[in-house]
Every structure is written in structure tokens, then in C-alpha cells.
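dumping this here before i forget
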Amino acid sequence: MKLRGRKPVFLLFLILFSVLLPFFPQDQGQTVTENPSFEDPSEIQENENIVPLLLQGIWSNKSRYVVFDTGFLSDPDSSIPQLVLKAFYGLYDDRAQESRDYTLEHKRDVNDVTSQARAQENSVTYHPLTQQLFPGEYGLDVVNENGDIYSAGSASSGAWDLEIKYEHNNEKYHVPVCIIGDSLYLNFVIKTYSSTDESNPLLGFWQDAGSASGILISPPVMNKELVSYFVTDNAVYHIRYWRTDMEYDPSVLAEFSDGSESYSVPKHLLSAGRVFTCVNGRATRIRNIEKSQDFPFEYQLNSVKISRSDSEGNIQSRETATLCAFGQPYLKRTDGSMTLEEIIAKDKERPPIKAKPLFPPHGILDFDWSIIKLPPEDWNRRMQDLGK
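structure:
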């Protein structure tokens, strides 16, 4: 009986609310969303520009073309790069990895060389290892919290951890890369500690960022060990790190000595989501350390210019190095005069290379039994070792 008595009152309340609803003030938050002047331009650029500026363009080596900034996304945080393999001595280009949307726009050649299935659609997320720096004339200087202004002394530079998600594979793989100028390297170290002597940019601790077998359409092979370097005025010390189940602690140090001199380095390194250590257990003493007079490989340093204004407004500048790349570049950036479609079309027009004759031109089979008795060391090298 009480419910029946309150029903007319409830209905009357609903009628009054519907009549007065248009006179209530509306949500003012919609104004901010519609007005673009309230948005932070830097945040918009960061959200739209998923691929770092230094990784944009067409990259190439003798076996492949790589394009990171294709504009195709798999989700809000991952881009879909394009990989084109130069098969058969570069006479045929196999579009082995690309977005399915790109395939719909550009029909893919299919023949005995190319798989009948669609191209793979792998995605990449870019995690910065260092700041990307440009020369001062670009107007893209980086200002640190203490007021220091960072820019590239000469060529632009930066480093990233490419987190790759392969199609039909739940595991994520990591490929660390660094760029110095128009060259991309896979084998490099990052300086995390600098000496007080700024006259020599090599002095300090250079941490190994890890190395992968390549930017491939199949999961790469990662180095199982890291080799970092501690550089002094008189020597370069090679410090080996290996995988461990220890909890990562960046504050713990390990020590080594050379005569009367003692040095400290991080005990743990974190690379590609994995923890490495240079000593076992709770020990902090590094033994049997290797020593040389220089880096064991040909190397290329980046150039970083650091500027700071004093209290009187005078600008003081100094140069150092934060990246050291070893060996030859893995990829080189093209000059940008041609699109990837134009490059592939031009490759198709090249005349075929004549195959070498099976037998010598003079008609005499020159055969030596030593080929059978002492075969070359790599006679059984598997195709997968060549890398896709």
C-alpha cells in the first residue's frame, strides 16, 4: 500500500525534471575539447609522430630496403615498417613485410620467388635509449633540467630499442639500433659515465646496448653476453656481462684494479628487458679482466655539443660523445630522391646478370681432389645463418 501511495509523487517528479532539464547549465568541458588552442602542440606531435625523426626515410644495404615511417599502424603504439628483400643478387625485390592496407593499394608481385601468401605484418614500438640530437641550425635543441642545452656537434645522432612483435608470435623481440648521420648501426655502446677530463671524449664507462643479428622478417638472434668498456688515459678495460636471474639494482657497483688504481662500474646492466651481471652472487670484485690500448673494432663516435649560460649571460660550450658504433653500418639512408615504389620499378628494369659458365671456357674441366679432401670451412653453412 505504501508503494502505491508514492507512485503519483514519483511520476510528478519525473515530469517536472523533464520540463526544467533544458534550463540547467551544460557541461563546460566540451568547450576545451573542441577548441584546439587548449591542446599542447608538443604532445600532438609526439602522438602523431610515432616513428622518430632520425629513423624516417628509406634505408638500404646489399640485402634489403627498410622503411620505418610507412604511416601504417597496428595499434596506437606500434607502427608497421616495410621490408623489401633484394633476392637473387638484387635482380628481384621481394616485398616480404608490409601492411595489408599497403598491399591493397599496391598490388604485390607473386611468382615462383615470392610466397603466394600475403606479406608479413610485423609491428615495432620505439623506446629511446638516448636523446635524438640535431645540429643547432635545425632549432631542435634539447634543454636539460639543469639548464644545459644539448645539440649535435656535427651529424645528428640517437639510439633506440626496437621492440618487434612478429605476426603469429606472442613473444616480443628487441633490436637496439643507433644512428650517426645517415648510418644505422646494430653494434654500439652508450657512455653512461664521463671522466672529469673533457679533452678526451673516449674517457668513461661505455655500456653495451646489446646486439641483434639484424632487422629481419623472422625473429633475430641476440648476443648472449654483453661487453662494456671502461676507458682511461692509459688503457681500455673489457668488462663481460652475462644473463642472470638477479633482481636489477642500478645502485650496486662492482670493482676491479690495475696496479694501484681501482675503478668501479655497475654490477648489473638492463638490456632489452633482460638483466646482466659481471660478477656472481653477492660478490663485487671483477677478476681476470681483459685490457687493451684501444677498442677492439673500428669505431665511429657521435658529437654532442653542450651549451650553458652563466650568470652574466655568456654562453659556454663544450663537446663530448655519448655513442660509439663499431664496424660498418648495417643500413645507409638513401638520398630521398626516389620513393620505394620508384626504386623497385627501377630494379625491375635492370638487365639480368649472365650466370658464370658451369665449365671453364677452354673446355677442360679443372678439378682438384683437394676440394673433396679439404673442403672449405663454411661448406655446410645453412641458409638460415645468412639471415632473411
